[in-house]
Amino acid sequence: MSDDENQFEQGNAGSSHTYTESAGSLKKGGYVMLKGHPCKITDVSTSKAGKHGHAKASIVGKDIFTNKTYEDSAPTSHNIDVPFVTKKEYTLMDIQGDGFVILMNEDGSTKEDLKLPETEDDFNLVKEIRDQFDAGKDLLISVLSAMGEEKIVGSREAQDK
Predict the structure, then answer these.
(1) Which parts of the sequence belong to the Translation initiation factor 5A C-terminal domain (predicted)?
(2) What pLDDT score does 160 carry?
(3) Considering only CA atoms, which of 83, 78, 102, 1 is closest in space to residue 35?
(4) Are 50 and 132 in contact (CB under 8 A)?
(5) Could you tell me the CATH number of the domain that includes residue 23?
């Protein structure tokens, strides 16, 4: 048997996007995977252990990309998936006619694969970004990343250094 026959291709089943945490240690304001969606926890409650069971944690959260509410429950001693969530700021360079934005990293490289959010919940954010950009203000755009997805979640005026 040659060395070439022992090489396997490794697939990515999404495990690198999450880690596990005990359901009993989850807190309001944290993040959790509910029904396969990365959510920000809006409520966590625990029930006492029953005669034959474990104490349970009831978790309610809002999807960080769609704002849809999800609920789930799990024994507090069991592990539950938690997404790695990062927030990064970019300098806004331009807004294209189709809603895509051109953003600049700290190292000067550009990012052109993000579109302004299109949901009703984000209407005010998009209006604010467009109005300030049209007024010639330098803006920093906050981008939330989780599970291989990204979304523009905020903006602020850049401060002169």
Answers:
(1) 84-156
(2) 64
(3) 83
(4) no
(5) 2.30.30.30
What is the span of the domain harbouring residue 101? 85-157
**How many domains are there within the chain?**
2
Q: Is residue 3 assigned to a domain?
A: no
pLDDT of residue 15: 52
Instruction: Quote the tokens at residue 40.
Output: 């920000």
Chain segment 9-65, per-residue pLDDT in tens: 444 444 578 999 999 899 999 999 999 999 999 999 998 877 767 889 999 999 999
Helices assigned H by DSSP within 10-154 = 123-134
Which has more pLDDT, 6 or 106?
Answer: 106
Please answer whether residues 89 and 103 qualify as being in contact, where contact means their C-beta atoms are separated by less than 8 angstroms: no
Q: What are phi and psi of 71, to 5 degrees?
A: -130, 150
- Of 37, 135, 47, 66, nearest to 95 by C-alpha is 135
Please report, for the domain that includes residue 150, its CATH number: 2.40.50.140
What pTM was computed for the model? 0.78
